[in-house]
Design brief:
- This protein is α+β, with helices and mostly antiparallel strands.
- Helix 5 crosses helix 6 and helix 7 crosses helix 9.
- The radius of gyration is 25 Å and the shape is globular.
- Among the domains are: 61 residues, no CATH class; 223 residues, Thrombin, subunit H (Beta Barrel).
- 24% of the residues lie in helices and 23% in strands.
- The protein contains 16 helices and 29 strands.
């Protein structure tokens, strides 16, 4: 999306033509602390309308701290003020490094960290290069054409040429995207806030940011907790940690599958399963079968998908080519470029193909199944500037590390390496989750809160997420995975095989600005990228809806988009059929299935109640469906089709749940009965009605809001 210039007080961020300036705008005189705080929902494009607490500001910082009077860039900062007696600030970082951080002040207030907001201002920062901060995007830079059947080296050289063209868009900014500079930016924000010391929580890629800040500015740290810890180096040592974890999980999965040979038919011994999976790897590529390196709770899903792959011979699709393959597309789609710069500016080698071959051979020898394919080995193809290895040091401030024993993205040995380098106490969580302590409602989350309140260190272990199997996914045919949401391919009753298919998801999953209360969006030329799911939940390929036909969050919570393929073409290409749209919603007590393509899992339960009015923030939905407790849906399941358990017709669409027991607030809907009595059902999920859609779709699958019998809300 396009960006508009942001000004901090009387100071404008100085940018060049190569930089995309932030989608946030301020005006007015700077406050006494030098920061002109404004409500985020008023100044930041695409912010949550219901969030009236978060304040935003843009802080100008030197691009190069060695040249303080030189070029400036803007760093976006958000704040949720303490609700009680204020004692300080809590800086946060969601990871990457390079993920958008300013919206953390809204999202993480619903986690255990929110309990600290009675005493601490919660601060979020978009690191330089991403989100609402000044950034550079390489969107639109083409890749050179490759010859038929290119060699690995030709592919490497092709990617290297693209890297160099991307870097050339703004060499100064790309060279300045370092973790050291992020730490300096944080300290600039600290000084402008007038804080002598900060508290800090960072997970995943945010752990290296925290470790660097403490190494450089230890005297300004009160307490720091880093979770799902990155390695203190970004080289072959770190790659080996990933490969070791993958190889261990692969062997464990093979032993598990061998015990279930009657179901999955990969072999009766671990060695037979390993041989069968290695054959699939050699046939379809490592990326397609790398799911075999995941941890226990997902194994039934993985086994079902691998068996489906073996039997169908239809490989799962990979992400679209290009630099968006890291899977994020927030506020300007610059994460991939920025994350590459942060990492490559800290890696001493891997610029040339010979470096990759050497490292790959070493890892393949140690870890035969996964080592030669370890992620990150070839991300710095011909990166134009030399890397500077991170200089991390111990400190005196209070430091707590936590790590999940079977974590895939940040393997447990990385935390031990980091602890050896910088010190601190280490809390071990014996599960396979990633960065989940902040949402843990048990002992782990309590220890997080107590550390920041009292400084009590956490050592040993605490119980994490369930180690029980999640079970198989159910039938996910016809479902879609969207960016942060789920969806489905749906077929109205009047549709024909030759008609262009329709995509259904929630209105709050709309790209860009979500509909405001009472608003209806129609015929928006906005693309939605979706991945088509197989019955077992494998990705079968990507499809882009070029137009949003209809979206609203008033009365119901739906978005309809037109797909470029007909129902017949989708069935021929992906071997899945669209889900039929029902004319009637579920009755109380009716068995239903919530099928999430985004989370590749299903829930089965009953429709517990039909709610006359569901109120959430400034939005109201009529005749919402409350699930029985077995359908404990959560983030990522928004937009999932709710299916009649017998016919698989779509009877509703999964929409929201009451997370915290709050009343009528964002992510905490309340029920209003026919007498106006308000009630709250914490932990329960809700679906909204979709049955009005059939009456608004005519010949050719055309949506006509003026059609006789159409009951969808009109603009």
């Amino acid at each position: 999306m396009r960006r508009t210039l942001l000004v901090l007080g009387a100071v404008a961020a100085v940018v060049t033509a190569a930089v995309t300036v932030p989608d946030i705008s301020f005006s007015g005189v700077a406050a006494t602390d030098g920061l002109d705080w404004q409500p985020c929902h008023k100044v930041a494009k695409g912010w949550y309308e219901a969030d009236t607490r978060s304040e935003c500001v843009l802080v100008p910082v030197p691009l190069d701290y060695a040249k303080p009077d030189g070029r400036k860039i803007g760093i976006a900062v958000s704040r949720a003020r303490a609700t009680g007696t204020r004692t300080g600030v809590l800086f946060t970082n969601p990871g990457g490094p390079g993920l958008n951080g300013v919206q953390v002040t809204h999202a993480w207030l619903h986690s255990r960290l929110g309990e600290l907001n009675d005493q601490l201002d919660v601060i979020g920062i978009d690191t330089r290069g991403v989100g609402y901060s000044d950034r550079v995007s390489c969107a639109g830079i083409p890749h050179d054409p490759l010859p038929p059947n290119p060699t690995a080296e030709q592919v490497y050289d092709n990617a290297g040429a693209w890297n160099q063209r991307c870097f050339a868009r703004d060499p100064e900014l790309f060279a300045a995207l370092t973790i050291e500079n992020v730490a300096r930016d944080m300290d600039t924000v600290r000084r402008l806030l007038g804080e002598e010391k900060i508290n800090y929580y960072g997970n995943s890629g945010g752990t290296i940011v925290g470790a660097m800040y403490r190494s450089m500015f230890d005297e300004h740290v009160a307490r720091m907790w880093i979770e799902s810890v990155m390695a203190p180096v970004s080289d072959i040592t770190a790659r080996a940690g990933v490969a070791e974890a993958d190889e261990r999980n692969f062997h464990d999965f093979s032993a598990w599958a061998a015990q279930r040979d009657a179901k999955y038919h990969f072999g009766a011994t671990a060695q037979q399963v390993e041989s069968a999976l290695t054959g699939l790897r050699d046939r379809f590529g490592y990326e397609v079968v790398s799911m075999a390196t995941t941890f226990l709770p997902r194994w039934p899903l993985v086994a079902a998908q691998l068996a489906e792959l073996r039997d169908s011979g239809q490989p799962a699709a990979l992400a679209p080519a290009g630099r968006t393959t890291y899977g994020w597309a927030d506020q300007g789609n610059s994460y991939a470029e920025t994350n590459t710069a942060f990492m490559c500016n800290a890696i001493a080698d891997e610029r040339e193909y010979a470096d990759v071959l050497r490292n790959r051979a070493e890892l393949a020898k140690r870890f035969p199944f996964s080592g030669g394919f370890t992620s990150g080995l070839d991300r710095c193809e011909k990166w134009p500037v030399p890397g500077r290895v991170w200089d991390l040091k111990p400190g005196k401030s209070e430091l707590q590390l936590s790590a999940h024993e079977f974590d895939g993205p940040t393997p447990y040995p990385w935390a031990k390496l980091m602890q050896t380098r910088i010190g601190g106490n280490l809390l071990t969580v014996p599960d396979g989750s990633h960065s989940s302590i902040k949402v843990n409602q048990g002992q782990c989350g309590t220890q997080l809160v107590e550390f920041f309140r009292t400084g009590t260190p956490a050592t040993g272990t605490c119980p994490g997420e369930s180690m029980e199997s999640e079970g198989e996914p159910g039938n996910l045919a016809g479902t879609l995975s969207l960016n942060g949401c789920s969806g489905s391919i749906v077929r109205p009753t009047a549709a024909k095989d030759e008609d262009k298919a329709l995509l259904l998801t929630n209105g709050h999953c709309a790209p860009g600005d979500r509909p405001k209360p009472g608003q209806v969006l129609t015929n928006q030329q906005t693309e939605i990228l979706a991945e088509v799911r197989s019955p077992a939940g494998r990705g079968l390929g990507f499809i882009t809806a070029p137009k949003v036909l209809y979206a609203t969050m008033t009365g119901t919570d739906v978005l309809l988009a037109q797909l470029p393929l007909s129902y017949a073409e989708i069935e021929q290409k992906y071997k899945v059929k669209a889900l039929p749209l029902a004319d009637r919603g579920p009755a109380e007590g009716q068995p239903i299935t919530v099928a999430s393509g985004g989370l590749t899992r299903s829930w089965e339960c009953q429709a517990e109640a039909v709610v006359p009015l569901l109120r959430e923030g400034g939005y109201e939905v009529k005749q919402a469906i409350r699930y029985a407790k077995e359908c404990d849906t959560g983030p990522g399941s928004s937009g999932s089709p709710v299916l009649d358990a017998r016919t698989r017709a779509v009877v509703a669409i999964n929409s929201t749940s009451n997370r915290d027991g709050k009343q009528c607030a964002a992510d905490n809907p309340c029920e209003v009965d026919s007498s106006g009595v308000v009630s709250v059902h914490q932990g329960r999920g809700y679906a909204t009605q979709i049955t009005a859609i059939n009456g608004c779709v005519g010949a050719g699958n055309v949506l006509d809001l003026n059609r006789e019998g159409c009951r969808l809300l009109k603009p």
